[in-house]
Amino acid sequence: MSYIASLDQGTSSTRCMIFDSSGSVVASAQKEHQQFTPKPGWVEHDAGEIWLNTKEVIGKAMASGDLSPNEITAVGITNQRETIVAWHSDTGAALHKAIVWQDTRTADFLNQLNDDVKQKLIHQTGLAIAPYFSASKIHWLLNNIDTVQQANAAGKLRVGTIDSWLLWNLTGGVHITDVTNASRTMLMNLQTLDWDKDLLEIFGIPLEILPQIKSSSELYGSTRLDGPFGAEIPVTGILGDQHAAMVGQACFEKGSSKTTYGTGNFALLNTGTEIVRSKHGLLTTVCFKFGEQPAIYALEGSVAVTGSAIQWLRDELQIINSASEMDSLAGSVPDNAGVYFVPAFSGLFAPYWRSDARGVIVGLTRSVTKAHLARATLEAICYQTMEILDAMAADSGVATELMRVDGGVTASELCMQLQADVMGIEIVRPLITETTALGAAYAAGLAIGYWKSVEEVKANWRESKRWKPSKSAEERTVGAARWKAAVARTLNWVE
Question: Edge-to-edge, what's the strand order for the sheet holding 283-288?
Answer without folding.
Answer: 283-288, 296-303, 265-272, 257-261, 402-406, 426-430, 463-467
